[in-house]
Design a protein that fits this description.
- The chain has helices spanning about 5-15, 25-30, 40-45, 75-80, 110-115, 125-135, 145-150, 195-205, 215-225, 225-235, 240-255, 260-265, 275-285, 325-330.
- Helix 3 packs across helix 14.
- The chain folds into two domains: about 5-65 and about 260-330, no CATH class; about 95-255, Cytochrome c-like domain (Cytochrome Bc1 Complex, Chain D, domain 2, Orthogonal Bundle).
- With about 325 residues, the chain is mostly helical.
- It is globular, with a radius of gyration of 21 Å.
């Protein structure tokens, strides 16, 4: 069994097979494998056969180097086009609908605890949040919605190294998935805020993302729409306002949960839910690879591994195009 097949097999176990586009990015590197590694690197490669290390999907900063700031461009970024054409705003579709709580691996108690007391889930609030999530009118020029960077058809990512905002402005961060985001202790790659409500507000006023000069400006656009005025009155008992707007978006984001993959069924006791290669990957993940160990060397958060086959490019800056690239990066000792 080749390294490529081990990688694909294990991540097939944590991927909802057939729900998102297929992953083909490993083929290019399988045709041109890297040179034989040293004994030390081979030992590390064994531990990363399944590519399941959470640390392998966060970008570590080597000792003596500083992490890139949110606003300062690197020389490589300076060489990139200043603007790119944004895609049409994605629609919700079946993949964007709130997910059922009846999933085999769902942690029931943790799921309940993830709802803040001051923002309880209600059907009408979730519906309002979904509408706002896919509405470009939240952006200054009407071309960017939350779903622009978090497209349900791409497992709530955008498939780009870094995201594209209003006027085609190129950002500096890879868009993380919102699947299972309700369980995050902090938000954004750098963990700068704790709650989804805080997270939902910042892209709206970021000049490289949705570009509104203020939250009040975004609210004014929404408040001019009769449908929104009625919905806010029904859900919150008052006209549109900033705090309620982000409460609604956060409520919708908390419905995007995913615990019904083949891997979840395997953990629940269905031994044939994943194949033998994936089982070997899971064993290595927990033993030689030390993938389940926390690491303090990373400057950015470790992302969720679910649907990792379809959430590339990888790392906070989209530096690695494929899972093979990620594995090779860590096999060489980069970032460790």
């Amino acid at each position: 069994m080749t390294l490529r097949n081990h990688v694909h097999s294990f991540f097939g176990g944590v991927h909802r097979g057939g729900r998102y586009r297929s992953f083909t990015g490993l083929k290019r590197h399988a045709d041109h494998p890297p040179k034989r590694a040293s004994a030390k690197r081979r030992r590390l490669r064994i531990g990363l056969i399944a590519a399941t290390a959470a640390a392998a999907l966060s970008f570590g900063v080597p000792p003596g180097k500083q992490a890139r700031s949110e606003t300062r461009s690197s020389p490589d970024e300076a060489a990139q086009p200043a603007t790119q054409q944004p895609r049409p705003i994605p629609e919700a579709g079946p993949l964007g609908q709130p997910k059922s709580l009846e999933q085999v691996g769902l942690p029931a108690e943790l799921t309940r605890q993830a709802i803040p007391p001051d923002n309880p889930q209600t059907p009408d609030k979730i519906t309002l949040g979904e509408k706002l999530f896919f509405d470009g009118r939240l952006s200054a020029d009407g071309t960017v919605a939350c779903s622009t960077c978090h497209d349900p058809a791409r497992a709530f990512t955008d498939g780009r190294p870094t995201s594209i905002g209003i006027n085609g402005r190129v950002g500096q961060r890879n868009a993380p998935t919102i699947l299972n985001v309700r369980y995050n202790k902090t938000q954004f790659w750098d963990g700068r805020v704790k709650t989804l409500e805080e997270q939902a507000a910042l892209p709206i006023v970021n000049p490289h993302e949705m570009g509104q000069p203020s939250m009040d400006a975004a609210v004014a656009k929404i408040a001019a729409v009769d449908e929104y005025k009625e919905a806010f009155q029904q859900v919150f008992g008052r006209p549109p306002n900033g705090p309620d707007l982000v409460r609604a978006i956060a409520s919708y984001e908390r419905t995007q949960i995913l615990f019904d993959s083949p891997f979840d069924h395997f953990i629940a006791g269905e031994k044939n839910a994943i194949n033998d290669s994936a089982k070997r990957g899971w064993e290595l993940f927990n033993t030689h690879g030390r993938c389940n160990k926390e690491a303090d060397i990373a400057a950015f958060k470790t992302p969720d591994l679910r649907n990792v086959l379809v959430t590339g490019p990888y790392f906070h800056d989209g530096l690695q195009e494929t899972l093979w690239d990620v594995i090779d990066h860590y096999n060489k000792g980069d970032g460790l």
